[in-house]
Amino acid sequence: MSMDQAKMPAGFGRLWTAQTVSSLGDGVTHAALPLLALTLTRDPLALAVVTAAGTLPWLLFGVVGGALVDRWDRRRTMWVTDAVRAVLLAVPAGAAVLDVLSVPLLAAVAFLLGLGGLFFDTAATAYLPDLLGRDPALLERANSRLRGTQTAASGFAGPPAGSALLALGRAVPLFADAVSFALSALLVRSLPAAPRPVPQARESLLRQARAGASYVFRDRLLLGLALRPAVGNVAFLAVETVLALFAHDRLGVGGLGFGLLLTAEATGGLLGAGIASFLGRRLGTGTALTCTAAVEGLAIAGLAAAPDAYVAGLALAVCGAGMGATMVLGPSLRQAIVPGHLMGRVASTSRMLAMCAAPFGAFLGGWLATAYDVRTPLFAAAGLLLAMTAVTATMTTDRRIEAALSAAAQEEVPAREASAAVA
User: Fold this and answer.
1) At residue 66, does pLDDT exceed 60?
2) Dihedral sign from CA coordinates of 14, 15, 16, 20
3) CA atoms in the 13 A half-sphere facing the CB of 31
4) How far is it, in rounded angstroms, from Cα 340 to Cα 127?
5) Does pTM surpass 0.85?
6) Would you indicate the residue range of the signal peptide (predicted)?
7) What number of other Cβ atoms are within 10 A of residue 202's Cβ?
8) Which SS3 state, helix, strand or coil, does residue 21 take?
9) Among 13, 73, 229, 258, which has the highest number of CB atoms less than 10 A from its own CB?
10) Do 65 and 122 form a contact (C-beta atoms < 8 A)?
């Protein structure tokens, strides 16, 4: 059945709505938490702690979290996690009303929200292939929609809404995000139950976590898919660290112009997510992934050499398009080829590699800008992206992908029969 003929199951609409509502709430909180912290302190270190706290769960518990998700019912994990996050946000909201809000409380909430995000995102990634029958075409369509609405909700609508709600009161954006989590929990709870993975031999949690990580590193295709966002995060964080300074010093734009540059990048991301499936069909998934990676590198090189803000905005839009397409094609392929009982661990391992790489990129960007000039991190990032493209191109070829999809299809029928027998 072609991708155009295939129909999404009814449950996908509820999952899509749930993640859109939750992403909108995330965007609200993403803008509101740093602004709330700013009302409490002007200490840059304290502000950085609040910002960094949300990423720590992926660094500390990423692989173990994936192993837990592979043990648990994935639908239940999603709705319980969102219900807990809704209740959690009532704590700082109440503290704001009572005027006892503090930076340590905000940092703790950011950490726990990040931990909830780890479990929800990993469970959602593992649940989607079960919902869609591991159909590669449906997975690309689904991830394109999910990625597009996530970008629109958390990148465009959420942050300005968070700033506006904060003007109504310090507790308002927190209550709004709590409502979004509660709605998401109700929608996810109504989703159809997915078949549980075939039980494996009882092993310790750490042994299962190591098995998931080693599965990624032993498989060249999965390793290539994991290296792209990991190396990409080093490059993109190097750019992001100095982008505001580059825009001010080299392009001569102020705060409004800088915001427009970021909007151009997000707009490109929406476009890339929308055309990802088309690129995969016309070029082949492996060739499309190689092309989008090369486009990202060339676009960053164009940004570094940009003579004015207009060219820079175009370069960022092109880069965003490459990133958007990559973030649809890569995860969709991974969901189609990884066995169901390993999906949580493989997804969390890949995400953890990307998250661990980000601080190195930030340090690299700051050091190069200090040692040389503000354009050097951009040229270095472009070189790194192009080098990564050359290395991973041999790991994610069309032939390797077709072989992996064929093997996954052959394994799917016995796995379904085994799941049915266990049920």
Assistant:
1) yes
2) positive
3) 24
4) 9
5) no
6) none
7) 7
8) helix
9) 229
10) yes
